[in-house]
Amino acid sequence: MKISKVAVKFSIVVSFLLLLVIFFLSSLVLKQKEKSFIMEMELRTRFFGRAVQEAIFPKKDLFQVHFAVNEIMKEKGIIYACVWDESGKFISHSISERLNEPAQTAVGKNAVVSKEFLIQEYEEEGESFYDFAFPLQIGDKIIGGIRIGFSKQSMAQALAEVRFQILKIAVFVLALGILITMFVIGFMLRPINYLAAAAKEIGAGNLKIHLNEKGKDEIGELSRTFNQMVKGLNEREFLRETFGKYVNPEVARLALENKLKFGGERKNVSILISDIRDFTSLAEEIPAEKLIKMLNEYFDKMVAVITERGGSIDKYMGDAILSVFGAPLPLENHPLNAVLSAWEMKTALEKFNLEHDIKFRMGIAVHTGEAIVGNIGSHKKMEYTCIGDPVNTVSRIENLNKEFETEILLSEDTYSFVSERVIVREMSNVKIRGKKKEINIYELKGIKEDSLCPGQQG
């Protein structure tokens, strides 16, 4: 069984409080015990005084006086007892040598002259004593008095026994208090421990956690709030996954984190567009369900290649894919990554055709230039996209694949960045729609070996 650290800390606090309470109560008990002891001694003194008074009045009976002294000396804790007459001389004393002598000590002299009950404390030979004196009085006349001496040591022994009993009770109460506290706190902390374990599971990606919501106290409310949080996280995760199926996952993440601003910005990017050749005729030959299934699998493979190289999917246009390298996140050497993606898409398509015994043909174009990228649209519906002349240019270059019966064409702007890493066939003085001047384009024939590092992004 795992011991809760919180329960241990709380037990220490409770133990400290219990010790304070026990110390306070034990002090009261000991003081009360000491007071009771003195009161008991006072009662014994008064009882002894009455017995002596009866022995000396109306007729003095020394035998009865000596008997009373001997009897009181038998009681525990009494050190001495004595009786004096109206002249102040001892007529009976537990120390026989002091008979017929007057009191000689200061304590004794104070007792003889006192007209009321007197309690004195004194020390003799390193030992402490209580002296209780009681005057014997008939009417207004004092006919003598008695004294009893008690050793403080006897009282200390009695108090020591009380302290020992208090200590035993304190240890028992303290141990019981610690056990009860740890049990109660441990029981109360169980929901919080479940909560901590659930939070750990969520941190590990498990969003199927659900806590028991029983209880109307703060812990029950905490469990309900936690479940609502998990529900919100599930909804957010569902939205992220679903959203990511329709747009680039990186764009989806930025949008969910509210990091995509409404509007656009100019960025130098590389744009890749791919298109399946003669797709319309293929659609007529293949059943619709099979065609959609194959097209989805084709997109999965192509998109995997693009995203592996750091590209983002701008949009699907029927069987065509428009992707951007260098936005929304900056990408070092995006022209090379776009060209490598184009070559790897060609290789992936060859494997795809072999697996499905089909003859998909693809045309790809890559162009680099300054485009406008951003979250464009209305507040109700928007799309992160790329617009501008580079998009039109790459689309028109891709269309030339049909004319030149090529698969991958690079613009001169892209080729200028990757010329030392690719093998091409130059196609000079090409006229494309929308451009006044003829341009040079290049058919990608191969990639030099030192440029084919997997997942290279720079």
Averaging pLDDT over every residue, what do you get? 82
Query: How many DSSP helices?
Result: 11
Residue ranges: pLDDT <50 for 5 or more in a row?
Answer: none
Q: Which range best describes the helical content: under 10%, 10-25%, 25-40%, 40-55%, 55-70% or over 70%?
A: 40-55%
CATH superfamily of the largest domain: Nucleotide cyclase, GGDEF domain
Termini separation (Å)? Answer: 54 Å
The CATH topology annotation of the largest domain reads as Alpha-Beta Plaits
Specify the overall morphology: rod-shaped
What is the CA-atom radius of gyration, in angstroms? 53 Å
- Report the strand count: 13
For this structure, what is the CATH class of the largest domain? Alpha Beta
Order of helices and strands: HHEEHEEEHHHEHHEEHEEHEHEE
Label the structural class: alpha+beta
Query: What's the architecture of the largest domain in CATH terms?
Result: 2-Layer Sandwich
Described by its quaternary structure, the protein is single chain
The total number of structural domains is: 2
Strand content: 15-25%
Report on the biggest sheet: 8 strands, mixed
